[in-house]
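hey can u check if this looks right to u? its 343 residues, i copy pasted from the old doc so theres a chance i mangled smth
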Amino acid sequence: MDVAASLSSWIAYAPYPILIAIILFLFANGDKVEKWSAMLARFGSFISARMERASVARDIQGRINEIRSTPEFKELLPYGLRIKWEKGDTVSGLKEGEVLVVMSESRNQARNFLNGLMAYLAAGFLDRVRPYISPTVTRGAELLTASKIMAKERLDALPLFQREIVTPEFAKDPELAALAHTMETYDDVGLFTRVFLRELTSYGARLSGNPPRASDQGPVQRLMEMLTLLVTKPPGLDIESEFVVKTPNLDLCVVLVAKPYTLAVAGTIAHVNYVQRQAALGVAHFYVLARGENARYGKEVVQKLADSKAYQKDYEESFITSRIKTTNYIALLHILKPVQQPS
């Protein structure tokens, strides 16, 4: 029997004098009853508000953690998120291996997500490479990453983001607008997160602890030039040697597995030999890219290199982009031991 039923039963069978005494007390002390009722209402409201804030925080944390667990973002967003509600300006920072965001709550849940996400990225995204690259590059990458996360997790936050952050910043800084547009061309073919941000993250790890120098920005500029050439390359044009960046702390080679006729006739030996030639010249990291029917050849290249015991596969993913609906394949390998040029 529930509490309400028990109370009703007790009142029904209570001696009349007691019941009359209770009624008289309520009439005689209406002000006290109102006060107690208000106190109980405020307590209930307080508990309800706390539960609501906790629910909103868990929702934001859960959405960002869901993105963090995907192959695309797993290496790029290493920190968890914890939200603490306090009135005042939003602040964030790393604490005990996670990003703590302290912010005030809005009745607009899309705004809560936007504020939490931007504060999270400001503290926990590309944190090791920020001292070594241009603030404009950092901000462009941050804005595009935020828009990608909102597009997947909270579409209703995008209009706020565009109106209150992107549009004003682009109007104030045309260089940022142009750079962000360039990064979007990488993202159109799936290379913004899978190559560009991955390389920035690795670059920061290699430089971490060193004092920043003006020359540190050169390799990142070279990386962007190479990716721009790659995404704007006309189909069928062979310029493989241009898809290489080789500097002391940032080196990579992008291997395109294309041309179905050549692959059908000659197989993948030319791609394997190309990787070995670049490895002999000092390149240590290789991205193998293929699309559609060529994906199986891309996987074959990766398998042959891994089977040679000279390379290790670090990452592999099949994906579809908003612009290219065909399935794309990408894998990253790094060299394990010196390789001689193939004869």
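The chain has a mean pLDDT of 86.
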